[in-house]
């Protein structure tokens, strides 16, 4: 039987790596878009960590280059396209607003255009974000909650989100959006707060440093495990009709509380090590995100499987091993 074929943009990122692994386990032929880098030796580190680097066909391309996307879509003719590529770090989006708009916003439209022009039979997934809720308009956010983006990143994601809806309604594409709340893992980029904390805990535990500087400890997020969340992406593309879904755990926790979990797992007290550095505060903060995943549960049969305690423990353990072996990711 011919394997199902999927194309993932952002395959070298956290979610791309877990999704590729998930699809390979289900017998998919997996293709990924790879942007050219002068550091080609490190760019597939996450795929190597999961032991799948040699199992994916990589194609040279960039979200800002429509011609490369049309070429890859035409060559691969995938049944499913997952658009995960983005400038995804919110804080950087104030320093690079135009690049964030070009990649995170217009880049998604380039992928939609490539699908429409080169292979409209493909089902399309857009990586939308809970950041779009920003200055929250309801205490618990669902698909019906109005958006209020608070960063160039969130504004770019909102544009991409509505363009996905528009291509569905205008051209009949099977285009779905997952409004995913924060999800983390040992493959999370080191600049994001959970990974920064678990890496910091490992360094302090091993005597490599004494303090960890953080920004707003009162911010609250609905944190899940990336491994669980890629399954929701796949389930959306298995539905007869395309749609939009909130994907979340339904539990919100402060940065402070995540620190307590991570430091506590290593037998440390966060109060002895965490310092607040005002330079790490953001020009506009998203104070709290708290998702309602009822629709994903009802229509997709999806629910988060990993507790925050288990997630923090896994991340601390992996970072301890990495620091002991002088490995970096
Ligand atoms: P990530 O680790 O930052 O990965 C981003 C990926 O995009 C990387 O593979 C990166 O390639 C690629 N990329 C960046 N610019 C590109 C360009 N111009 N052309 C082609 N590829 C490009 O992000 P993630 O955490 O896996 O998130 C995946 C997606 O979900 C993103 O769109 C993110 O905004 C969205 N999202 C994430 C979360 C979350 O909590 N993780 C929640 C909601 C939505 P390099 O490896 O070369 O840098
Ligand atoms: O880990 P963060 O940088 O993630 P943020 O901004 O919530 O964005 C992530 O989740 C979004 C989904 O809601 C994605 F769309 C996006 O791509 C990304 O994956 O920050 C989380 C919170 C913020 O409130 C931040 O101000 O942690 C706070 N924080 C406190 N100290 C810090 C720090 N964040 C970072 N990165 N570094 C700190 O030192």
Structure commentary:
With about 325 residues, the protein is of the alpha/beta class. The protein has 2 domains: about 5-185 and about 225-245, Rossmann fold; about 190-220 and about 250-290 and about 305-325, UDP-galactose 4-epimerase, domain 1 (Alpha-Beta Complex), CATH 3.90.25.10. The protein has 11 helices and 13 strands. The strands form 4 sheets. The protein has a 7-stranded parallel sheet, sandwiched between helices. The mean pLDDT is about 95. Ligand G4F binds next to helix 7.
What class would the helix/strand composition place it in? alpha/beta
Assigned CATH architecture of the largest domain: 3-Layer(aba) Sandwich
* Count of the separate structural domains: 2
Binned strand content = 15-25%
Specify the number of helices.
Answer: 11
Instruction: Give the overall shape, derived from the CA principal axes.
Output: globular
Rg is: 19 Å
| Low-pLDDT runs | none
- Which ligands occur here? NADP nicotinamide-adenine-dinucleotide phosphate, ligand G4F
Q: And the CATH topology of the largest domain? A: Rossmann fold
